[in-house]
Amino acid sequence: MAHAAAVHSAHDTHGHPPTSTGLDNKKIAIWAFIGSECMLFASLISTYLIYKGRSVVGPYPHDACLPPACSTPLKAILNIPVTSASTFVLLMSSLAMVLALAAVETKDQPKHTTGERILGSSKLWLWMTALLGVTFLGFQAFEFTSFVHEGLTIRTNLFGSSFFTLTGFHGAHVTAGVLWLLTLLAIDYRRGLGPKDALNVDLAALYWHFVDVVWIAIFTLVYLIK
Amino acid sequence: MAHDPSHDEHTTHVDHAAMGMVKEHPTWSTYWKVAVILTLITVVEVWIYYVPSIRDSRAFVPMLLTMSAVKFATVVLFYMHLRYDHRLFRVLFTGPLIIASFTIVGLLFLFGHLRIGAGAT
Question: What ipTM goes with this model?
């Protein structure tokens, strides 16, 4: 509350923060951060693609592994149906996130119908986003566990090293996003999020959507393209 | 920034200028339509993966990359509001994104995964 008040009081009479651009520094910072994250994930995706098809031993992502590369015959390890489901979950979490932001921005508008009350519930959409994020992490935990049971670890081959590093970094970002959402939920329960908090929710939303677009790229480049 | 234009007068507490908004954000119905489009594209992506005649064709990879790029751009433009926000944010995002894209393509050429005139190996 005190922080929000401090931020608000720092604005001039037109609501502009005292910056040379007229834009809030936090929003500029999150976009700069997202830009740097683009390059981080580009390096991880490049590494995966460069090592693709160069593993000496199996398991392999899209092809069966037969002796002598594997001691026992192994099928292709990537589980496309499960990953498709987790991709859908993450896409829907982005929808829930924009609805959460919209609900915060329009919190002081009167809600006449049940539909308006549902759409205007920031708690509902923040919970939905966080739960979908946790569901995505559950899919990832299931995938990682099944891979380990099938003999693929981060040390097994080049595919395992680059795959676990790339998707593990993404999963860590999703985890950070879920924690961020939970802090927003805590604030919402404590004092309620309103239009004055829209910027702070917008920052979390931008981060969350970025995590989503990174997965869009990973799903195509890692899972679908042989 | 009204999600429902009829309620514009109630949204004066949102600091639009600081958030960098230069146009109104989409409505709730637009967000739902975008979600449906994203889902449909994902369904098509997965469907063509399971059609051997498409998966084995030379068009498979370009089709997937195109659909992925459309999904990427849709989320960035509509959900991240880049279409509606200040130009500085577009520069801050697209600049590194272009560098990142060239880095990936450059490294794939460097390590022999892409060859001019020969396509992907």
Answer: 0.86
